[in-house]
């Protein structure tokens, strides 16, 4: 009994790895119903008229890519399919490569043109002060886009002077940027805000849904999978739900097993 | 003997990795191009990082340090091209020193630039006092801008759903139960954190309910954390199986 409590943790790692590989290789269907927070973002994007401006803030870097990049891709599919004007930016210096790759690859699928249908403004430091600057004047915050073009000359930004003119802002966050957008952006400049975040941050974001400071929330890979299913572009996140579900069951079994062994060994010791 | 075993495990793993890549390239599963070598590099670095789960080893250490170095170098380059060059160098430095410049220098940029340089003077014993000006500016501005907005966004806006009427017509029974749960959760957790009153009697009973609410929230956070970490593992295994080994479509 005592031996079972001192099982080598590497055996557990190996079991988890094998479970992930097997459930990725063996294909089986699992239902992915959309939750209310995810549906909130979807419905908001769906309700926007053609030509509306959607600003996506890609606030993550490669360490959170696996959760947030599928969200970005699914959202971009939805925006370009609805002929919305997409503006991309980031607060993270490690993000421009990922963000540009996502925007350009999806834009190409819908024959969208840089500068006319979408713009990528790139990275700018400052966080809160950058948001305040964008709220006053987008062109002083980003005088040039990621490619060095004058932002004031970009047709896609026509009609946009500041954050007040953005119909929907979506923040894909691996850190505290959602709170920053709420405090320094939404509170003063009154735009609609939706968000996607890593699963670790998910529970902290639910109060903002309750208070309607967020129109919706995509939490972790599950949120990304739900959005992929909603827009009919099932990819990495949906296929990741199979191992996610299988491993969750294994972890629950491990927790039950550990507790049973613990209490049984304690009983045996006291006997 | 044990040290030898770990050494041979590491060398054996490297030989196996190289052999697999040679086979994949010779079979045409990986292109003999920069893309192919990029995938091999990504696969190698992923496996080197995960090798830490077995034991700390030189491959993990090298990869860890490489990550820190590459991240820093990338950040410096991105900051220069996305921020310093378009916002400071082009509008201020170029027109100052180039006769061919089309625009006149933006002298207003000198003030924030000087404040930024003052921050770096903390490293000088004689001039470190100048950094206090920058700090005073940052703290003053930060507090002035943040305090009213944080109170509004995080306190006033958050209080509203807690004060939502349980029955104001049109709600389902579940939304009314939710409202009651929020009210009970807020009050019981707040009472749990009142330490100037002994937690006995009714105060003790309510604070115990608060503990339950806290435990449930910790459990939810832990569950989400497990999901997040697993997502990262799944993403890397998808990369290894699909992009590197070509097993997944």
Task: Report on this structure.
The complex is a heterodimer of chains A (271) and B (249). Chain A has 271 residues and is an alpha/beta fold. Chain A has helices spanning 2-5, 9-25, 36-47, 65-81, 96-109, 128-136, 138-141, 177-189, 202-210, 220-231, 236-270, and strands spanning 53-59, 85-90, 118-123, 168-173, 192-197, 217-219. In chain A, strands 3-2-1-4-5-6 form a six-stranded parallel β-sheet, with helices on both faces. In chain A, strand 1 (53-59), helix 4 and strand 2 form a beta-alpha-beta unit. Chain B has 249 residues and is mostly helical. Chain B is 76% helix and 0% strand. Chain B has seven helices and no strands. The longest helix of chain B has 44 residues, at 201-244. The mean pLDDT of chain B is 91. Chains A and B meet through helix 2, helix 4, helix 8, helix 9 and helix 10 of A and helix 3, helix 5 and helix 7 of B.
Give a concise summary.
The complex is a heterodimer of chains A (271) and B (249). With 271 residues, chain A is α/β, with parallel strands linked by helices.
Numbering strands along the chain, what is their spatial order in the largest sheet of chain A?
3-2-1-4-5-6
- CATH superfamily (homologous) name of the largest domain in chain A: TPP-binding domain
Distance between the termini of chain B: 43 Å
User: How many structural domains of chain B?
Assistant: 3
Q: Give the topology string of chain A: H per helix, E per strand.
A: HHHEHEHEHHEHEHEHH
Name the biggest interface: A-B, 56 and 45 residues
Strand content of chain A: 5-15%
Provide the gyration radius of chain A in Å. 22 Å
Helix content of chain A: 40-55%
Residue runs with pLDDT of under 50 for 5 or more positions of chain B: none
Structural class of chain A: alpha/beta
> What general form of chain A does the structure show?
elongated
**Can you identify the CATH class of the largest domain in chain A?**
Alpha Beta
Q: Helix count of chain A, per DSSP?
A: 11
Mean pLDDT of chain A: 94
Task: Tell me the fraction of residues in β-strands of chain B, as a range.
Answer: under 5%
Distance between the termini of chain A: 14 Å
Give the CATH architecture of the largest domain in chain A. 3-Layer(aba) Sandwich
The number of distinct helices of chain B, counting runs of at least 4 residues, comes to 7
Class from helix and strand fractions of chain B: mainly alpha
Radius of gyration of chain B: 29 Å
